[in-house]
Specification:
The protein is α/β, with parallel strands linked by helices. Helices cover about 35% and strands about 25% of the residues. Strands 5-4-3-2-1-12-13-14 form an 8-stranded mixed sheet, sandwiched between helices. A 6-stranded mixed sheet has the order 8-7-6-9-11-10, sandwiched between helices. The two termini are about 20 Å apart.
Length: about 280
């Protein structure tokens, strides 16, 4: 029996960097909850962006934000893994030297950034609908940072190799969506966040299914009975998933959620008539 469903957002449920979601997701998430099935959205996005996207059902689900570094439920923090200030300072100092990039620091209130690029800020504010806090020096305003992020339009794979080599012993480093690299504390990713949710609610991995499209979704597969990759996913995700489903543009995830819901209805009817 399925009791927990976790899904990536960008490229899996919505188009990258947008808030265009099929409203049917809201009614399905509510119906799943009524059947005792919890839905968790998992993303590198800031919690405020995810909360806006799912506002009609935000109290009926769980949010894995910052690629697993922060887990929220009903506006309460279930889990949070902060990056030491000395790591933040070193990383920011080095990242500032990389041309044509934009850096963000994920804090409780929003994303800190030094960028003044109008196109980037428009994308972050009006596309992702993130809370952006623009400052001259992010290191003077850090607070509690759970994720470091850097955006580059071209050459992200090459930059990832450099950054991974430099930080692999101190921070988790993943490609997260188009043009993004995210860094969190070691061992902190969507999969470990999913494991924490399972422990919190008493749910077993075999009672869990997950959906994704990118490399930062691979970690969830180890904590699920079945993993699904949308048809537009990267090859590594499709290779490791139990099944490839229709693409994000075709609402492949929604189709599976409706199948799960129908199966839950059928099981309920079977138990009802069996008791009679």
């Amino acid at each position: 029996m399925i009791r927990l469903i976790a899904s990536d957002l960008d490229g899996t449920i919505v188009s990258e960097g947008t808030d265009h979601i099929n409203p049917k997701y809201y009614s399905v998430i509510r119906a799943l909850k009524e059947k005792g099935i919890l839905f968790a959205a998992a993303s590198g996005r800031h919690y405020t962006s995810m909360r806006r996207l799912f506002e009609p059902v935000m109290m009926d689900m769980v949010f894995i934000s910052a690629n697993g570094a922060r887990v929220m439920s009903q506006n309460r923090t279930l889990m949070e893994e902060k990056i030491p200030d000395e790591y933040v300072e070193e990383w920011v100092t080095e990242a500032r030297k990389i041309p044509h990039t934009h850096i963000i620091l994920d804090t409780k209130k929003g994303f800190l950034t030094e960028s003044r690029d109008e196109a980037f800020l428009h994308f972050m504010i009006h596309g992702y609908h993130n809370e952006m806090i623009c400052t001259e020096d992010v290191l003077r305003n850090t607070g509690s940072v759970v994720k470091l992020g850097i955006h580059l339009n071209h050459g992200i794979d090459e930059l990832y190799e450099i950054m991974y080599t430099q930080w692999k012993t101190r921070l988790e480093c993943v490609i997260s969506g188009t043009g993004w690299i995210d860094l969190t504390m070691p061992g902190v990713h969507k999969g470990t966040a999913l494991s924490g949710i399972q422990k919190h609610y008493g749910i077993r991995p075999e009672e869990t299914i997950v959906f994704g499209d990118n490399k930062n979704d691979l970690g969830m597969l180890a904590y699920a009975g079945a993993g699904y990759a949308v048809a537009n996913a990267v090859e590594e995700m499709k290779k490791n998933a139990a099944r490839v489903i229709p693409a994000q543009e075709e609402d492949g995830v929604l189709r599976i959620l409706e199948e799960v819901l129908e199966s839950a209805h059928a099981e309920y009817r079977h138990r009802k008539y069996s008791c009679c």
